[in-house]
Known about the structure:
By secondary structure, this protein is an alpha+beta fold. It has helices spanning 18-30, 34-42; strands at residues 10-14, 53-58, 63-68.
Amino acid sequence: MFGGHKSGDKLDVRFSSEDAYQRAIDGLLKKEEIYRLLSIADAGKGGFSTTQINYIADDTHCVIEFILV
């Protein structure tokens, strides 16, 4: 998902349903599973932070915009 990206890059993820969106909010953000994905995607390259990420959650359109730090 984040492979080949660098700090400052953005990735929008649109979910097909409100249920899928809410599960992503819960798992990726509230349970902080996003950091595991970041570590795997970066694979030690140091292209972006694997311990910090910014995001914008759009509940109306079921979109999460991830902004790499």
